[in-house]
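Sat 14:20. Reprocessing the chain from the morning session after the first attempt stalled halfway. Input below, unchanged.
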Amino acid sequence: MKMRKKSELPSKACAACGLPFQWRKKWEKVWAEVKYCSERCRRSGGKQNAG
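Finished this time. Tokens:
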């Protein structure tokens, strides 16, 4: 992947908290499967109240 501006990176909304998060290098090969912005959100599995 060549260098891009931060604003050009793809983003998604977190399945647990609903906040947007951007692509990270460590997710390069599994971006299609990434659903959560953090480990904390992944563990909660969408049980948190947004806001």
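Strands lie at 11-13, 20-22.
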